[in-house]
Amino acid sequence: MEIEGGTGPHTPRAAKLRVVLGTLLVHADRVVSVDSLVAELWRDEPPRTATATVHVYVSQLRKLLHAADPDRGRELLRTQSPGYRLCVPPDRLDLSEFERLHRRGREALAAGRHRAAADLQRRALALRRGPLLSDTPHGPLLEGAAARLAEAGVAALDQRIRADLELGRHHELIAELRSLAAEHPLREELHGHLILALYRAGRQAEALEAFAELRRTLVAELAIEPAPPLQRLHRRILAGDPGLLRTAASGGRAVAVAVRPGHERAMPPADPVFAGRGTALAQVEELLRDAPAGSFVAVAGQPGVGKTAFALEAARRSDPSFPDGRLFLDLHPERGRPLRATEAMSTLLRRRGVRPAKGAGAGELREAWQAQLAGRQLLLVLDNADSEAQLRPLLPTTGGSSAIVTARRLPAGLGGIRPVLLDTLDPEEARLLFAAAAGPEREAAEPAAVRELLELCGRLPLAVRVAAAQLTARPHWKVACLVDRLRDERYRLGELRIGELDVREPLLRAYRDARPELRQAFRLLGLLPAGRFDRATAAAVLGRSPAETARLLDGLLDDRLLAADRAGHHLPELLRVLAVERLTEEEDPQDTGDAIERLCAEHARAAERVTAVLTHARPTGQEPHEPAGWFTREREALVRAVRQAHRAGRPAAVVRLVAALDGHLETHAAWDAWAETHALALDAARRCGDRGAEARTLRSLGDLAWQQRRPEEAGEYYGLARRVAEESGHRAELSRALVGLAELRMDAGDGADADALLASAHATALADDSGPADPRARFDVLRALGLHALADGDHARAHARFTDCLDLARTLHDRRLESFAHRALRTARPGPGDHLEVRPGVWRLPAPGRRAEPAG
User: Fold this and answer.
1) Is the pTM of this model over 0.70?
2) Where is mean pLDDT largest: 126-135, 422-431, 767-776, 806-815?
3) Which fold is adopted by the domain 264-422?
4) Alpha carbon 417 to chain centroid distance?
5) Is the dihedral of CA 641, 644, 648, 650 positive or negative?
6) CATH assignment, 506-587
7) I want to staple 733 with a disulfide (CB 3.0 to 4.6 A). Which of 562, 725, 785, 793 is the partner?
8) What is the pLDDT of residues 413-434, one digit of tens each?
9) 206 CB contacts (<8 Å, ≥6 apart)?
10) How far apart, in whole angstroms, are the C-alpha atoms of residue 69 and residue 8?
11) 387: which DSSP letter?
12) How far is it, in rounded angstroms, from Cα 805 to Cα 824?
């Protein structure tokens, strides 16, 4: 780097002074900020005096410029916020002159003015005396500029050779092209020029040998064949095509051997069955189109979600924005170790036609790779990224080029990340993928079975593809046949496998890659049913504090073993199946039982909080969202927890949870769940010797049978509840069992027996020497007495009993019982055929001589 003036050339001796001058020169007539100069001089470790030191360097440069040009030298370097601007006229800067000549030469070649093109490019190349700023240390700005201009130099050389070939100068070019081909053994365009020049010089055998040598090198180094244009040139030479001998100078049509290094040949073929993802693809296109320098798109999602196929489709759609091509590299090959960054850079360089120097270090490789990206519009697809350290040196640092990265974990620590998170397919996208993979006739023939199949596959693209492949390989199978095989969760992952496609393998690999504490958390979450869960439920299952639970859930989210949205967290379907599988095979039974017990306790607390809110209207701030709909939302999970606790041999947990659910089951007329949970609770109560719970459960089963109009079964349960309560001294349950028996006698028209049973129940519900009164048991007695009075036609007595119910409900601050009492008072004189509310939320037709169905 020299400054030429009237007093001769002047060269800055200090390296850092050359850095400042070089940075200002490559950005001539543009403002370079002080911060940029600091970064260029010291990268990430500037001294505390960096800004002041920059000012000193600028002052020294001004003196140097003045020495070279005493008249105008100082005026060239101006202070302009936020830095400095070097105002050099284009005709006084060789860099600007090179760019001007190169641009004019390119235009001349495109216009077919080959003599002018060759002359202009030759003059441009004459300005170069080696690599740009080779005597100056490179920071990020100079590194990018040097790489860009190095590529511009190669482009100028290529265009000069093209023009010379068209001018019939093939004899003169052969020696130069042999040297260039040896220097750049993987640059196919240079080899193409050599092969053409040899053929035109009448050296056909040497031309064919040059092609064979190039092919051997490409196959050995990159495992690829020469580009299609070179292969066509080879075939024409073999055929002795006279058209290759015609040049522009001879009046013939120009023969171009244009090779785009690393373009389509460096990408896997298009996916023939790709479907859906329209919104996400549009998002990637927009991100790539408007991407600032140094930014990249990171595609993340659970294993099997189709990240690679999506990235390739996004790259294909973005092709017009990247005219210099696309490159694909798998950073973690299947059944192999992740590539080191140096290995990845070496591979990418070879695919661009550059053979890295033997023993080149990471820094040298990074500089060479970034030089390939500078000044170009290339799109990289870096698949299966393993770490930020692996990715960092591969990503473009200057504008023009960009990258699509796929990874299970987002490389969030890298600057410029633009994340795109892939979820499982929506139902319509899954249907389209299945139809594309298995054939539309399959979907059309059994649409309902296909819908169920897709749900059993969790709408995971890999699973949908495997299912479609199985049906394609077995045309005699119906879709319903495969559905039957997948319904059993224990065997589902084993069934989703064909050939080299195996759904379990990537899911299991992701699980095994997680930290031990995350693996255990994942297994324990397999206790939860499909669907969303909140953090309180997760904390109960995991046995951790809220803060620890949040940390574990975030870790699982980062590892893509868990999903989340505004409605809560959930295990995607096939990951949930894997969690259940791993829980069964790996977790200690004691730990599993403890987790189930904690889960039941949390469900019981939630049920009790909801009951308190709905009956007492006293929110605690801890009750579930929309408590009125809580039971409907959680019903499956609650019944599942009861089953799990019973299987795990945790009877106390079964008893407590079912007791907390008693009122909810009746209120929602959930008869099937009521029957199942209470049958298990009865067995559990007997196993743990809880006679009170046994009596309560028997009485509740009697209530269920009574509501279902099975009086004999109801009588058996009430009778057993009465006996157990009498033996164990549980007066409240004894009172309720007597009320149940009384209502059966009332239904049968036996008023005398009903009177006796209700009198006994009323006495049992009152306080005596054995303990205090149970107000809720007494309310139940008063309710039954009121109904019995109505049946007898004694409306005054019925009104009095319902008034007592109202007073007692108010004392209990129970809105539900209070509302029932108000309704009972209003309907104390029901007309014929009117519905009568016999219990809170349970209605009957009391018309004599007919049995009315209860309505819950």
Assistant:
1) no
2) 422-431
3) Rossmann fold (3.40.50)
4) 15
5) positive
6) 1.10.10.10
7) 725
8) 888 899 999 999 999 999 999 9
9) 198
10) 9
11) -
12) 9
